[in-house]
């Protein structure tokens, strides 16, 4: 009998910000993550804040770490694309009753969508249909 893995905790916005940095840049130290986060902020975070968040991400099995000398390097366990699909699937289920059509309808009814984005979506649908046939 195989044991099912316990599901990961959902990512908070702050956790997702850290994960995006690690997905984009690869294996990083806490200091490197902190510098990247603080580049975009008017109110910088403290090192201890990022350190606690990264420890939680490790505890929740989003990150793993390895020690080299006295420094810990963190890398992602979960892939970016799979995480995006999981988050979107959760939204689709909770908000749209599992309906892909309703989810896409909501996106298309967004007043901020422009004609280039609509054309890109058309091309995606056409290429998806070609793959399926």
**What percentage of the residues does DSSP assign to strands (E)?**
5-15%
- Structural class of the secondary elements? mainly alpha
**Strands, total number:** 2
Largest β sheet strand count, sense and barrel closure: 2 strands, antiparallel
Q: How would you sum up the global shape? A: elongated
Secondary-structure element order, N to C: HHHEEHHH
Q: Count the helices. How many?
A: 6
Residue share in helix: 55-70%
> How many structural domains can be distinguished in the coordinates?
2
- The parts where pLDDT drops under 50 for at least 5 residues are none
Task: Give the N-to-C terminal Cα separation.
Answer: 38 Å
CATH class value of the largest domain: Mainly Alpha
Strands of the widest sheet, in order across it, are 1-2
Our Rg estimate from Cα atoms comes to: 19 Å
């Amino acid at each position: 009998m195989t044991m099912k893995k316990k599901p990961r905790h959902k990512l908070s916005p702050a956790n997702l910000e850290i994960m995006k940095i690690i997905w984009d840049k690869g294996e990083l130290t806490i200091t490197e993550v902190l510098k990247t986060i603080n580049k975009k902020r008017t109110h910088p975070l403290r090192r201890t804040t990022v350190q606690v968040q990264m420890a939680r991400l490790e505890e929740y099995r989003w990150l793993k770490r390895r020690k080299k000398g006295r420094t810990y390097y963190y890398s992602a366990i979960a892939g970016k694309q799979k995480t995006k699909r999981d988050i979107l699937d959760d939204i689709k289920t909770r908000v749209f009753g599992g309906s892909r059509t309703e989810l896409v309808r909501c996106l298309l009814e967004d007043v901020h969508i422009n004609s280039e984005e609509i054309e890109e979506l058309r091309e995606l649908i056409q290429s998806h249909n070609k793959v399926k046939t």
